[in-house]
Structure prediction request, 237 residues.
Amino acid sequence: MAEIRDIEVVVFDVLGTLVDESSGLRAAMREAVPMSDAATVDALVTLWQRHCGREQQRVQQGHRPYAGTAVIDAEAAQRVAEQAGIDDPAVVGRLATAGQRLPPWDDSVAGLGRLARRFPVIGLSNASRTALLRLNAHAGLCWHQALSAETVRAYKPAPEVYRLAVDTAGCPPERVLMVAAHAWDLRGARAVGLRTAYVRRPAGDPPTGSDDFDGRFDGLDQLVGALTPGQVASGSP
Prediction:
């Protein structure tokens, strides 16, 4: 496995990379509409994700004033409620916070912990500051610092989001490694000068043949091995 050298700080995408967004949303839909079958749940998740993706894109394109994920998730919850016939405000309100209760992938907590003993580790997410705080606590993700794109009132892949991470890291962008399961996210980071590593996840956005990332990995164990060669292989902490 190729090593990744000369890195001072590691930055992680969160949604989809370290937490299983799709499974978490499915669990929230099943809780809100207990009698729904799998096809109905999947349709509601798709409705949610399409709304959130579309509205974030409208913000990026200047077609909508900035709205944080708390607002957009609440809108998505209302759309799901209308589709599913939910009229209980308490159920809709809890559904609106579904993005704060997403489970980690099996290797996320341990892999993050191992890297954090070798590097400063930063989380960089489109999730709002409050959502990110609660999500990190729910999933057991421990950072040296977690950054929300809400700080710069933009959404990835806007360059100012990645510059926020570089400014926080306090070192040149070529010494900052952006890790994500989404090729579109890594392309945005590369455009600002960051190094990039793709980690495969079931619901991620895989690279194309033209993507020139510093590494492609099947999981966090492989990534840790590429960043800490010899140390991880020998079983040292």
The two ends are 20 Å apart (CA to CA). The longest helix spans residues 38-60.
